[in-house]
Specification:
single chain, alpha/beta, Rossmann fold, two-stranded parallel sheet, 10 helices, 15% strand, globular
Length: 275
């Protein structure tokens, strides 16, 4: 067994060192905070509801997308909600009865352009891992599918596109995962949405159905860090989703918004602070 675990631990340790450097730099230097609210959050949400905006969610069967859809349905923030995915989702709760499901073939997205038409806001939570899909599969999903979906959304009238990316995303990174995330961020920005919001969460705290050893390793190894830097290395998935919805209601006039992990915590906890 030592022969099996040694390389895993070495790789995990290398990634951990890089991750620590990125997260602690952000915590100590402090990214720009979200804008101050002229109104309380509840009023902002009610104002937003009256706009009768429609939205679509890419990756609604994944952990973030699933929680996002749940909170959107519960909040009633959008008058029309559509999921875009490769298969239909079986909803047992009657609350989801009005959710529209568009089933597409991501390999032939041009043939499904109608699925991306007529939405004001788009949320992209689409993604896989190299371990699950291989290097080519990871690039195809996290770059090709995401970019093409954004292009079709823009052509279909989407004004505000929200992208779940990753802490440390950098198109110049030597790490494949971070490089691909950074590349797709930059390429979507060039599409020219009226508003483009990028979320860069750190390790997501969620009970996944699928096992991801690297995330388990990061959670366990970084526990001591959380004591001193509670917003540095992780974020509950519910907080990330609340940040997405709160940020939509804020209706910022910034064309491009980059929200790092600390800002995500701040936005996601606004509701708790007001209650």
């Amino acid at each position: 067994m030592p022969g099996v675990w040694a390389p895993v631990c070495w790789v995990g340790g290398s990634v951990l060192v890089l991750f620590l450097a990125i997260t602690l730099h952000e915590e100590l230097t402090g990214p720009a905070e979200p804008p101050r609210m002229a109104k309380d959050l509840q009023t902002l949400r009610e104002d937003y509801k009256r706009l009768n905006k429609s939205c679509f969610i890419l990756g609604a069967s994944g952990e973030t997308g699933k929680e996002l859809l749940k909170q959107i349905v519960q909040s009633g923030l959008f008058s029309k909600v559509t999921t875009v995915g490769r298969r239909k989702i079986d909803f047992e709760d009657e609350a989801y009865k009005d959710v529209i499901q568009e089933v597409v073939d991501f390999e032939k997205l041009d043939e499904y352009s109608s699925a991306f038409q007529g939405h004001d806001v788009g949320f992209c939570c689409l993604g896989t891992t190299k371990a699950k899909s291989g290097e080519a599969g990871f690039i195809r999903v996290d770059h090709d599918y995401v970019l093409k979906s954004a292009q079709l959304a823009k052509a279909g009238g989407c004004q505000h596109f929200n992208l779940e990316s990753s802490k440390g995303a950098n198109k110049g990174s030597s790490f494949l995962y971070l490089r691909v995330k950074g590349e797709v961020e930059a390429e979507i920005e060039e599409i020219g949405f009226d508003r483009f919001t990028i979320y860069r969460p750190a390790v997501l705290l969620v009970d996944r159905k699928e096992s991801r050893p690297s995330e388990w390793f990061a959670r366990k190894a970084l526990v001591p860090v959380s004591y001193f830097f509670p917003t540095a290395y992780s974020v509950p998935i519910t907080t990330l989703v609340r940040a997405m919805l709160n940020n939509a209601a804020l209706q910022s006039d910034k064309k491009v918004e980059l929200l790092e992990n600390k800002a995500i915590h701040t936005l996601g906890k606004m509701e708790e602070q007001k209650s």
